[in-house]
Batch of 4 targets.
Target 1
Amino acid sequence: MEAHTNITKIDRCSGLSEKEFYNTYVKNSLPVVITDRGDWTTLEKFTPVYFKSNYNHLNRTIDGKTYPLSEIIDLCKSSTPENKAPYPNIYNVDRDFPEYPDDIPKMLYGKSNRLHSRLLPNFIAKRTNQQELFFGGKGCSFPTLHIDYLGVHTQLTQIIGEKDFILYPPNQTPYLYPDKIRSTQSPVNIINPDYDRFPLFKNAVAIKTTLQPGETLFIPAGWWHTTYIHNFNLTYAIDHVNSFNWNFFMDETYIAAKKSHPKLAWTIKVYKVIMGKVFNLKESLLN
Ligand SMILES: [Fe+2]
């Protein structure tokens, strides 16, 4: 994958075709805020009351304490920077809301998403988180600056509240001190940086954007990111793999599979080459 050029702000666009989205943003590894609501005209349905009355059986353990969903929602609503709600509290849509996928609006520019293709075997697709919901409250921020797992792109749609996204392009990596073992994580606290420990961080240039309800942010593979929340918040995230990050995704998947399923892992290498060509052809026909 190639690093992007130097940009100082994130475009906000509407009405892009699949091809324009791919050629302008995906191919150049550039983030973009898509202001079209797409099928998210039903945002109003996904309210705190809806989740509390239908999904209170869902429990989440954060820092050793278990919370039912209604408590998470209440804590997020009363959250302040001094007394923050537990965060992150992530719900996997496929696992936690098994009937929900039919209800979730279609992904913007999802025609090129190989993770959702029937041609991608389950044991490969299931290695990603695919679809998640994040609740949050005022003062919460994602605990680490990170790159998403397995080299996926991510699309995040804001459902409730506003959320700041702080992004660093791949060419800023030398200033971010990637962890030696978990190389997709940075130990730098970007809100209150320790310049004695991380002096090069002074050189890092962030690009910020704020996502409003109904807007979607595309974060290209390999971009560092974290978030900061100003009010009660619900965000939907979906992983995205297309021709741009296919080889990287499949190579990372192979490395992970070699540890868990050494006898099956070789099939990933074969699949990468053969199906990569089929997917490329399919995507070249998108308009
Ligand atoms: Fe992420």
Note: Helices lie at 18-26, 48-55, 69-77, 93-96, 122-125, 246-260, 265-284.
Target 2
Amino acid sequence: MEEFYRIRRLPPYVFEEVNRAKAKARNAGADIIDLGMGNPDLPAPQHVIDKLKETLGKPRTDRYSSSRGIPGLRRAQAAYYERRFGVKLNPETQIVATLGSKEGFANVAQAITAPGDVIIVPDPSYPIHAFGFLMAGGVIRSVSSDPTPDFFLQVERAIRHSIPKPIAIVVCYPSNPTAFTADLDFYKDLVAFAKKHDIFILSDLAYAEVYFDGNPPPSVLQVPGAIDVTVEFTSMSKTFSMAGWRMGFAVGNERIIAALARVKSYLDYGAFTPVQVAATAALNGPQECISEMREVYTRRREVMVESFSRAGWDIPAPRASMFAWSPIPEPFREMGSVEFAKLLVEKAEVAVAPGTGFGERGEGFVRIALVENEQRIRQAARNIRRFLENAPTQLHNVVPLANRR
Ligand SMILES: Cc1ncc(COP(=O)(O)O)c(C=O)c1O
């Protein structure tokens, strides 16, 4: 029997193969150091947890909440944009709270896509950037995610050769998985480009606060007039280590925000009110927890780059995000990122995410997440050193990518 239409558009996650290898190794007693998924291991701030507890267990907060987000939460997000980016937003018409930014992104795709609509999506990218639109019946035209001047030549070509003309372009800086960042000049060019071609910009800014070297990533909305064509997504998941709480935001263009709010009004009643109240406290409260989070990831980044380099694997230091995007060490390049990631689990007890899980241009790379503590990162480096020293033995029996079907 033929698979359902939507399921056909959702191939099994590439990461599943590595997850299976991980489960198998763990069942056999291995202590896998998991640098695979971008799942923050830090605790949510105590004052936010306290606010959640304080709000729980009252009949009023047990009721259905507000799908667009309670007004105080939307005002808190407006205050954050003003404080952090100098961008003024109307909480009534330009902000919607979402059940994590992933849900917001997927439902914007549902809201704005007609079957066959073309969307320009970076490759490699966080999977929902493409699959949100594929699920909605859209067609993906991929471009490299490197924010260089060449980017616009590529996108211009993609627009010229797409039928029908694309409706939107997705950008994500700091990028998951590549950790690339973009500056305001790039966004100025992007906004001018989007206006010229009459397309929307969907900007995923999930890593707005996870940056190193004192260089905060800008928002597309800082460009004057960007709101005419832009919607931007932010998240509490990484900023406040609240990934499981499922709280994010879509802000910007009123037409898209209204469309998203309409779709959501049919689907959900908003996050649990205590979660929304606690998220409001996070945005309005002391911000030291954010710089502490940043310091933890900065130290981990340093430990990783330094200890992996001593182990024989040179990893480019990311400038932002919680990931390093690293070429596969030379002797293993031919086998491809999935086989390499599996081998690393089996022989070094270290899990990383294979580059092809983020798109075809991800081949040759793996993504390493800074989600274990410094001691575990050092242990991973020691395991990898042994693994690399035994490279000739490890390579025995591995079928090169080119010879596989
Ligand atoms: C680029 C990017 N966007 C969105 C998300 C999802 O975030 P949320 O937890 O807000 O749904 C992630 C999570 O890893 C991400 O890396």
Note: The longest strand covers residues 118-123.
Target 3
Amino acid sequence: MARALKMTCLQCSAVNRVPEDKLGAGPKCGTCGAKLNDGKVRALDPATLAKAMKNDDVPLLIDFWAPWCGPCRMMAPAFEQAAKALGPQARLAKINTEDHPNVSQKFGIRGIPALILFQGGREVKRQAGAIPAPAIEQLVRKSAKLPA
Ligand SMILES: [Zn+2]
């Protein structure tokens, strides 16, 4: 039996359990049917973020950004590129700190963009400032335990 990994649906925030060997098979949310790990960057709200960071076994990298922040906008394509490169073994999502100002305070973020990597209910890595796609990918590969 393959290990079941918890993954919060970034669309409806239901917690799904996906067998590790099915991660690459395009798993969908049992509640709303959204694809769980299609390599696309999704925008989160604070409630979904709170649930995902608490539950998810699959590495979750969050980009804390805002529309007024030039370096944030510059990094956005690199972040999407890294999400594609990492494939189904990790998920990348973003949260708009202008729409949700409380999250910056909650996570003690002083400057954006800021990247925080979560896995298994804890923060495993934090990166301040914009970095290119290969560096984003390496951050996840080096700091998280990627599923098999
Ligand atoms: Zn869902």
Note: The mean pLDDT is 96.
Target 4
Amino acid sequence: MAAKGAHITPNIEVKPSLFEVLAADSLNITIYPAIKRVVDVTTAKPTVFGGLVRYYDEFYLAFNSLVQGYYLKQYGGSLAEVFYGLTRLSVRSKTFTTKDRNWSFVVLVLVPYAIRKLEKACASWKDDYENAKHVSAHRQLLFRLLPYVQACYESVKLIYYVSYLANVTKTHSPSLRALALGLSYLTEEEESWSFKDVLHGKVKVATMMSTALLRWLELSAFFLQFIEWWQTEANIGDLSKLPIPDAPEPDSNAKKYANVCPICLQKQIIPTAVSVSGYVYCYRCIATHLQTDSRCPVTKYPATIKDLIGIYTGDDD
Ligand SMILES: [Zn+2]
């Protein structure tokens, strides 16, 4: 692999433009949602392919391992980087060693998988918490902290883009920087063969298969850009639905009168709510009260007999 970067010396080093490295980055993060969308659409029958949807992360982990593993080994870059004609080289030695390759694999394949799992776990803990289920303190801390950590990382990324543009750094992303790798133009000639070679038995079937697969993958990369747009459209559709507002804060007296009528302090007979305050009384108690005082007895909000609502909980007999 050392030969790959041997022709590049610091004097004639050509740095890929920010546009190219950003394009590679954006293609890389598109692959996951794009394939997810294809899986969602094609697996309309949940009984047959339900497992693929449920274990999509694991399916994608396997797929991504194969693809990125191959591209790192063969071209020294991720699928998206190679697609844009880029390859990874060590900032210092201008080579791409086995160690660089293994760490690249960890950052490209394993870390995103772990982050996705963490995000999903946090989302479900947050959901449980909002539905008043018990969530341990450290999990609460984790799901509260996660958005801030992500915002910080995004800011750091932006700083890296700017410093790459200003020629201050040789790498455009914190993750590549952590690996001490930079992106450079891919120069190695790929294996080429013609059908004549095939007829003369010069090309192995395995080579043909792998080339065909790669062409298919690279074509798919174009297709992915289209699916990304499709995905965005779908998200915009969802955005038009406003988020559910937070549940109202309980009133300080709410606990005191839980399951009892605030007037007679017994279990409510014919439970009746005052709609302006939410407190529940016996129908007789509140109706009698409102004849002399047009206010909710607990909150003192103005109320009349017209503001009473029957509560049908099903356990009032
Ligand atoms: Zn009562």
Note: Strands lie at 86-90, 181-185, 271-274, 280-282, 308-310.
